[in-house]
Design brief:
Distance between the termini: 28 Å
Strand order of the largest sheet: 1-9-6
Order of helices and strands: EEEHHHHEEEEEEHHHH
Radius of gyration: 22 Å
Largest sheet: 3 strands, mixed
Structural class: alpha+beta
Helix content: 25-40%
Number of strands: 9
Strand content: 5-15%
Amino acid sequence: MGAFATRDILPGEIVLVDFTSIVITNGHIAKDCYQIAERYEELEEEEKQEWRNLAGFPWNSRANHYRTIYNLPRPDGLVLPENGEFYTLLNLQFDCNTFAISDAKSALFLKASRFNHSCDPNVWYENSEVEGRWVGRANRHIKQGQELFISYLPNHNPLDGRQKEASNWGFICDCDKCLEMPDEYTASLQEARDIANGIEPDRGWVPPSHGNTVAAMEDQLRRRVTLLREAYDKMWGAKMDDAYGKELVFA
Protein backbone atom coordinates (compact mmCIF):
# COMPACT_ATOMS: atom_id res chain seq x y z
CA MET A 1 0.00 0.00 0.00
CA GLY A 2 1.03 3.60 -0.46
CA ALA A 3 -0.21 7.20 -0.59
CA PHE A 4 -1.23 8.91 -3.83
CA ALA A 5 -2.25 12.43 -4.81
CA THR A 6 -5.97 12.72 -5.59
CA ARG A 7 -5.41 16.23 -7.05
CA ASP A 8 -2.54 18.50 -8.03
CA ILE A 9 -0.59 19.64 -4.95
CA LEU A 10 1.48 22.81 -4.63
CA PRO A 11 4.84 23.07 -2.83
CA GLY A 12 4.34 23.72 0.87
CA GLU A 13 0.82 22.30 0.97
CA ILE A 14 0.03 19.96 3.84
CA VAL A 15 -0.79 16.51 2.48
CA LEU A 16 -1.46 14.77 5.79
CA VAL A 17 -1.84 15.55 9.48
CA ASP A 18 -1.89 12.34 11.50
CA PHE A 19 -2.40 11.98 15.25
CA THR A 20 -1.59 8.99 17.41
CA SER A 21 -1.77 7.82 21.00
CA ILE A 22 0.69 5.00 20.24
CA VAL A 23 3.73 6.60 21.84
CA ILE A 24 6.26 4.70 23.93
CA THR A 25 9.21 5.79 26.04
CA ASN A 26 12.24 3.86 24.84
CA GLY A 27 13.98 1.83 27.51
CA HIS A 28 14.48 -1.78 28.47
CA ILE A 29 13.15 -4.20 25.85
CA ALA A 30 10.66 -5.80 28.27
CA LYS A 31 9.20 -2.41 29.25
CA ASP A 32 8.92 -1.49 25.57
CA CYS A 33 7.00 -4.71 24.91
CA TYR A 34 4.59 -4.05 27.77
CA GLN A 35 3.99 -0.47 26.56
CA ILE A 36 3.28 -1.62 23.02
CA ALA A 37 0.77 -4.22 24.21
CA GLU A 38 -0.93 -1.64 26.43
CA ARG A 39 -1.12 0.99 23.65
CA TYR A 40 -2.71 -1.60 21.37
CA GLU A 41 -5.34 -2.62 23.91
CA GLU A 42 -6.31 1.03 24.44
CA LEU A 43 -7.25 1.53 20.78
CA GLU A 44 -10.64 1.39 19.12
CA GLU A 45 -11.25 -1.73 17.03
CA GLU A 46 -10.81 0.16 13.73
CA GLU A 47 -7.39 1.40 14.81
CA LYS A 48 -6.42 -2.08 15.97
CA GLN A 49 -7.28 -3.39 12.52
CA GLU A 50 -5.15 -0.68 10.88
CA TRP A 51 -2.21 -1.70 13.06
CA ARG A 52 -2.67 -5.40 12.27
CA ASN A 53 -2.68 -4.58 8.54
CA LEU A 54 0.75 -2.91 8.60
CA ALA A 55 3.86 -4.56 7.20
CA GLY A 56 6.12 -6.30 9.69
CA PHE A 57 9.63 -7.47 8.82
CA PRO A 58 10.47 -10.79 10.51
CA TRP A 59 13.72 -9.92 12.28
CA ASN A 60 14.35 -13.35 13.82
CA SER A 61 16.55 -12.23 16.71
CA ARG A 62 14.04 -9.56 17.77
CA ALA A 63 11.09 -11.90 17.34
CA ASN A 64 12.70 -14.48 19.63
CA HIS A 65 13.26 -11.84 22.32
CA TYR A 66 9.65 -10.66 22.03
CA ARG A 67 8.26 -14.20 22.22
CA THR A 68 10.26 -14.90 25.36
CA ILE A 69 9.03 -11.73 27.06
CA TYR A 70 5.37 -12.16 26.12
CA ASN A 71 5.30 -15.77 27.23
CA LEU A 72 6.64 -14.97 30.69
CA PRO A 73 4.38 -13.79 33.55
CA ARG A 74 4.33 -10.00 33.77
CA PRO A 75 5.74 -8.44 36.96
CA ASP A 76 2.48 -6.56 37.51
CA GLY A 77 0.41 -9.73 37.15
CA LEU A 78 -1.57 -8.38 34.16
CA VAL A 79 -2.81 -11.14 31.88
CA LEU A 80 -2.93 -10.19 28.19
CA PRO A 81 -5.94 -11.37 26.15
CA GLU A 82 -3.82 -12.92 23.38
CA ASN A 83 -0.84 -15.24 23.23
CA GLY A 84 2.78 -14.21 22.85
CA GLU A 85 2.87 -14.79 19.09
CA PHE A 86 0.12 -12.22 18.53
CA TYR A 87 1.96 -9.46 20.41
CA THR A 88 5.28 -10.47 18.86
CA LEU A 89 3.82 -9.65 15.45
CA LEU A 90 2.50 -6.31 16.75
CA ASN A 91 6.00 -5.50 17.99
CA LEU A 92 7.55 -6.34 14.61
CA GLN A 93 4.96 -4.12 12.91
CA PHE A 94 5.76 -1.33 15.36
CA ASP A 95 9.49 -1.69 14.66
CA CYS A 96 8.96 -1.64 10.90
CA ASN A 97 6.76 1.48 10.90
CA THR A 98 7.82 3.52 13.92
CA PHE A 99 8.92 7.16 13.80
CA ALA A 100 11.38 8.57 16.33
CA ILE A 101 9.79 11.67 17.86
CA SER A 102 12.70 12.43 20.23
CA ASP A 103 15.83 10.74 21.52
CA ALA A 104 13.70 9.03 24.16
CA LYS A 105 10.34 8.36 22.47
CA SER A 106 8.95 6.56 19.43
CA ALA A 107 5.49 6.65 17.88
CA LEU A 108 3.40 4.63 15.44
CA PHE A 109 1.31 6.79 13.09
CA LEU A 110 -1.20 4.51 11.41
CA LYS A 111 -1.88 6.71 8.36
CA ALA A 112 1.63 8.12 7.88
CA SER A 113 3.02 4.57 7.98
CA ARG A 114 1.44 4.02 4.56
CA PHE A 115 3.89 6.36 2.81
CA ASN A 116 6.54 4.46 0.91
CA HIS A 117 10.20 5.47 0.80
CA SER A 118 12.22 7.28 -1.83
CA CYS A 119 15.75 8.67 -1.60
CA ASP A 120 14.40 11.67 -3.55
CA PRO A 121 11.12 12.22 -1.66
CA ASN A 122 8.42 14.67 -2.72
CA VAL A 123 7.05 15.01 0.83
CA TRP A 124 8.93 16.21 3.89
CA TYR A 125 7.54 15.75 7.38
CA GLU A 126 8.01 16.73 11.01
CA ASN A 127 6.70 14.90 14.06
CA SER A 128 8.55 16.47 16.97
CA GLU A 129 6.89 19.87 17.50
CA VAL A 130 3.76 18.34 19.09
CA GLU A 131 3.98 14.87 20.61
CA GLY A 132 1.71 12.47 18.80
CA ARG A 133 1.29 14.66 15.70
CA TRP A 134 2.78 14.03 12.23
CA VAL A 135 2.65 16.69 9.50
CA GLY A 136 3.71 16.03 5.91
CA ARG A 137 4.16 18.80 3.30
CA ALA A 138 4.83 18.66 -0.42
CA ASN A 139 8.31 19.95 -1.22
CA ARG A 140 7.58 20.31 -4.95
CA HIS A 141 4.70 20.31 -7.43
CA ILE A 142 2.97 16.93 -7.38
CA LYS A 143 0.52 15.97 -10.12
CA GLN A 144 -2.74 14.13 -9.54
CA GLY A 145 -2.14 10.38 -9.53
CA GLN A 146 1.54 10.55 -8.54
CA GLU A 147 2.69 8.57 -5.52
CA LEU A 148 3.70 10.52 -2.42
CA PHE A 149 7.05 9.50 -0.95
CA ILE A 150 8.88 10.28 2.27
CA SER A 151 12.44 9.35 3.16
CA TYR A 152 13.11 6.79 5.88
CA LEU A 153 16.84 7.54 5.94
CA PRO A 154 19.45 10.25 5.22
CA ASN A 155 18.82 10.64 1.49
CA HIS A 156 22.07 12.45 0.61
CA ASN A 157 24.30 9.57 1.70
CA PRO A 158 26.10 7.77 -1.14
CA LEU A 159 24.32 4.71 -2.53
CA ASP A 160 26.12 2.06 -0.45
CA GLY A 161 25.34 3.90 2.77
CA ARG A 162 21.67 4.31 1.87
CA GLN A 163 21.28 0.66 0.94
CA LYS A 164 22.91 -0.44 4.19
CA GLU A 165 20.51 1.81 6.10
CA ALA A 166 17.54 0.48 4.10
CA SER A 167 18.50 -3.10 4.95
CA ASN A 168 17.98 -2.21 8.62
CA TRP A 169 14.33 -1.55 7.68
CA GLY A 170 14.11 -4.90 5.90
CA PHE A 171 14.17 -3.80 2.25
CA ILE A 172 16.44 -3.03 -0.69
CA CYS A 173 15.70 0.42 -2.08
CA ASP A 174 14.82 0.46 -5.77
CA CYS A 175 13.72 4.10 -6.05
CA ASP A 176 14.57 6.09 -9.19
CA LYS A 177 17.57 7.65 -7.48
CA CYS A 178 19.10 4.34 -6.41
CA LEU A 179 18.54 2.88 -9.90
CA GLU A 180 19.96 6.08 -11.49
CA MET A 181 16.81 6.51 -13.58
CA PRO A 182 15.96 9.78 -15.38
CA ASP A 183 15.58 12.66 -12.93
CA GLU A 184 12.05 13.70 -13.89
CA TYR A 185 11.84 16.46 -11.28
CA THR A 186 14.94 18.27 -12.51
CA ALA A 187 13.75 17.81 -16.08
CA SER A 188 10.42 19.45 -15.20
CA LEU A 189 12.27 22.40 -13.65
CA GLN A 190 14.30 22.89 -16.82
CA GLU A 191 11.09 22.84 -18.88
CA ALA A 192 9.53 25.45 -16.56
CA ARG A 193 12.69 27.61 -16.82
CA ASP A 194 12.67 27.43 -20.62
CA ILE A 195 8.97 28.33 -20.85
CA ALA A 196 9.36 31.26 -18.45
CA ASN A 197 12.33 32.65 -20.35
CA GLY A 198 11.04 32.01 -23.86
CA ILE A 199 13.82 29.54 -24.63
CA GLU A 200 13.18 27.29 -27.62
CA PRO A 201 13.26 23.70 -26.32
CA ASP A 202 16.18 21.57 -27.45
CA ARG A 203 14.63 18.65 -29.33
CA GLY A 204 17.74 16.56 -28.85
CA TRP A 205 17.97 17.23 -25.12
CA VAL A 206 18.39 14.13 -22.95
CA PRO A 207 16.90 14.41 -19.43
CA PRO A 208 19.49 14.11 -16.67
CA SER A 209 19.79 10.94 -14.63
CA HIS A 210 20.09 10.65 -10.89
CA GLY A 211 23.64 10.26 -9.63
CA ASN A 212 24.77 8.62 -6.43
CA THR A 213 28.24 9.99 -5.81
CA VAL A 214 28.56 12.93 -3.44
CA ALA A 215 29.69 15.13 -6.34
CA ALA A 216 26.70 14.10 -8.49
CA MET A 217 24.22 14.78 -5.69
CA GLU A 218 25.77 18.18 -4.99
CA ASP A 219 25.55 19.03 -8.69
CA GLN A 220 21.90 17.93 -8.78
CA LEU A 221 20.97 20.16 -5.83
CA ARG A 222 22.79 23.18 -7.30
CA ARG A 223 21.11 22.60 -10.64
CA ARG A 224 17.64 22.44 -9.10
CA VAL A 225 18.15 25.67 -7.17
CA THR A 226 19.52 27.45 -10.24
CA LEU A 227 16.64 26.30 -12.46
CA LEU A 228 14.05 27.36 -9.87
CA ARG A 229 15.61 30.81 -9.57
CA GLU A 230 15.86 31.26 -13.34
CA ALA A 231 12.22 30.23 -13.80
CA TYR A 232 10.57 32.02 -10.90
CA ASP A 233 12.62 35.23 -10.94
CA LYS A 234 11.49 35.72 -14.51
CA MET A 235 7.82 34.89 -13.85
CA TRP A 236 7.27 36.61 -10.50
CA GLY A 237 10.36 38.66 -9.71
CA ALA A 238 10.14 40.29 -6.30
CA LYS A 239 6.49 39.19 -5.98
CA MET A 240 7.27 35.51 -6.10
CA ASP A 241 4.21 33.39 -5.45
CA ASP A 242 4.34 31.86 -1.97
CA ALA A 243 4.13 28.26 -3.20
CA TYR A 244 7.00 28.71 -5.64
CA GLY A 245 9.04 30.47 -3.01
CA LYS A 246 8.55 27.45 -0.76
CA GLU A 247 9.70 25.10 -3.52
CA LEU A 248 12.93 27.09 -3.81
CA VAL A 249 13.41 26.94 -0.04
CA PHE A 250 12.86 23.17 -0.02
CA ALA A 251 15.34 22.72 -2.90
